[in-house]
Specification:
The chain is an alpha+beta fold and 250 residues long. It contains ten helices and five strands. A five-stranded antiparallel sheet has the order 2-1-5-4-3, sandwiched between helices. A hairpin with a 2-residue loop joins β4 and β5.
Length: 250
Amino acid sequence: MVDTGRDLRLAAVLVATADTLGDAFDMPEYLRRFADDCVEVLGADAAGILLVGADADISIVTSSDPHGHVRTLLEIQHQGGPALDACAAGEAVPPVRLAGPEAAERWPQLTERAQRQGMTATCAVPLRRGDTLIGALNLFTNGRPEHHVLQLELAQLLADAAAIGLSQRRALDDCRALTRQLQSALSSRVRIEQAKGLLAERWGVKVDAAFTALRAHARRMRQPIDAIAQDLLDGRLTDTELEADRPERW
């Protein structure tokens, strides 16, 4: 029998995970919601996300974690853990029993801390988009009967959806940043051209000579030339103040 309610909930989670292009997008809130959704639909007790930024900075976000226990399980993985392994290899780490010898040998610090917090198993999947690794999703369960076995394949699908959404957001942010830089450069150029024309008209000289004066004044005052141009246009800088930087030959 098909569990329609569960299927609809999973579809809603996938849509929400891919929705990252809105103006109101908030990265921390998005990741927290994603972690909570993973706990709900994957039958886990806790989830943590280790996110690798474009500048190689590491961010950690967890599912609901009032006492900070899950965050601790992510932070301690600088000494070894499934999230770190998934990031390093770019491959999923299948469910591992924390009480078993494999976990104790691979991640002794994490295993000891996780068991103290009642966790019995863990797994992790990479967040990746093509060859670009964004981070890892780490799941934990305490093994209670009402919880399902950790679903690795479904976890990877959700992680892939998050990676697509985050990659699109990064591309949008990069595009907007480039647009702002180009607009700023264009505005700066326009200010300089206007200031050159204004000064050339007042002094009755060629625009090249006016530009030379503006540039010399900017260097002497140790300010950007477009700031000097703006001051001239706004009347905060007078022709008299520029006289000291007026070229001897016109």
